[in-house]
Amino acid sequence: MAPGRADALAVTGLGLVTPAGIGVEENWQRVLSGRSCATRDETLSGRPTDFSCRVPGFDPGELLGGFASWQLERFVQLALVASRMAVADADLDPLTWDGTRVGVVLGNSLGGAATFEEQHDTLRESGPAKVSPLLVTKYMPNMAAGYVAIDCGARGPSLVTATACASGATAVGTARDLLRTGVCDVVLAGASESALTPTVLAGLAKMGALSRHREAPEHASRPFDAERDGFVAAEAAGVLVLEREADARARGAHVRALVRGYAASSDAHHATAPHPEGRGIEQALRAALADAGVGTSEVDHVNAHGTATPMNDLIEGRMLSRVLGGRPAVTSTKGVTGHTLAAAGAIEAAYAVLAVERGVVPPTANLKNPDPAIDLDVVAGEARTGRIDTAVSTSLGFGGHNAALVLTAA
């Protein structure tokens, strides 16, 4: 039996709270439409970058109760709503499960950046007596995992992964290890991020990461396009419920797809730039395929990291072409959602699950002039239907973090 085949993991629940909508179906329809979520952002008015991708219509008081609107930071609020959705989708009941066998692994990078900025201003203007006692708990990046565990009574490991924009994929891989080693029977895995603050975006803009297409924000994120010039910053949360396949089948769960393989690597090259030959992400991708027992010719679809930055797309695109050839249908859903930073790997894994489950590859938004230096079959214009047995989701993060997931049909 091929490596990894004996202990595939079942994805039995999904929860998505993104700029594409609140809920799986709303997300999926928007992603399939290929319409960008980028809009003007009044909180960034007058700044060099005055647009972003925010979750529309998100009311924490309505969705979570009154305490959440003031006691919890937004990245925690997003994670709580996504986790509740995922658990309900998996047809699991936290009131009846054995919480000691349930784990939570949620990625995050920037924590409560908005609270930190706000309270820093309070300290400077009004002194330490006015600083909120909630500052630390609202700022700490582990609080999404902590509050999700509290909310659903998950008393197994509660962990945060912080591998920058690969954090969500790393969380799924960490959950895999908890299940394969028997530490947990159920794991809520994913990531959340909400750091659309003036300071964070100023820093991203200064380093040249953000798109400068201010005149038309909805066309700013252009993955794999010859005129791409950077990403649009976004917020989101995505949570997957993972179980061992045998356990999920035994309880009669609906299995959306299987996580067959995972691997991670480090470029050991540069703080922000990927290795110029894509050596690190290639290492992760090949190792994930080996873990899954899947050959390179068997991959039908890739949800690429595809940030719409000139360097990332060129390096990742050439790597995918080199490893997988021209066969897989490639997409970058960041054209629709923007770049959700730590949450990206989680929501894109969820989109890959839906692509496998439903046999549809979403189009890459704003791809009008494919970069001739990237030899890939990138889906553009309209969604493409067809059988998808195996999909890959790739993630790259600042610091040289790389992760790859292999998902197959259930």
Describe the 3D structure.
With 410 residues, the protein is of the alpha/beta class. The protein is built from 14 helices and 16 strands. Strands 1, 2, 5, 6, 7, 8, 9, 10, 11, 13, 15 and 16 form a 12-stranded mixed β-sheet that branches. Strands 3-4 form a two-stranded antiparallel ribbon. A hairpin with a 2-residue loop joins strand 1 and strand 2. The longest helix is centred in the N-terminal third of the chain and has 16 residues.
| Percent in strands | 15-25%
What is the rounded Rg?
Answer: 20 Å
What is the end-to-end distance? 18 Å
Number of strands: 16
- How does the major sheet shape up? 12 strands, mixed
The SSE order reads: EEHEEHHHEHHHEHEHEHEHEHEHHEEEEE
Task: Using brief descriptors, characterize the structure shown.
globular, two-stranded antiparallel sheet, alpha/beta
Short description:
With 410 residues, the protein is an alpha/beta fold.
Itemize the secondary structure elements and their pairings.
Elements (H helix, E strand, L loop, with lengths): L8 E10 L2 E2 L1 H10 L5 E2 L10 E2 L7 H5 L3 H4 L2 H16 L12 E6 L5 H14 L8 H5 L3 H10 L5 E4 L5 H14 L5 E8 L4 H9 L29 E9 H6 L6 E10 L12 H14 L8 E3 L6 H15 L4 E3 L2 H4 L6 H15 L1 E2 L15 E2 L5 E2 L4 E8 L3 E9 L1
Parallel strand pairs: 5-6, 5-7, 10-11, 10-15, 11-13
Antiparallel strand pairs: 1-2, 1-8, 1-9, 3-4, 7-8, 9-16, 12-14, 15-16
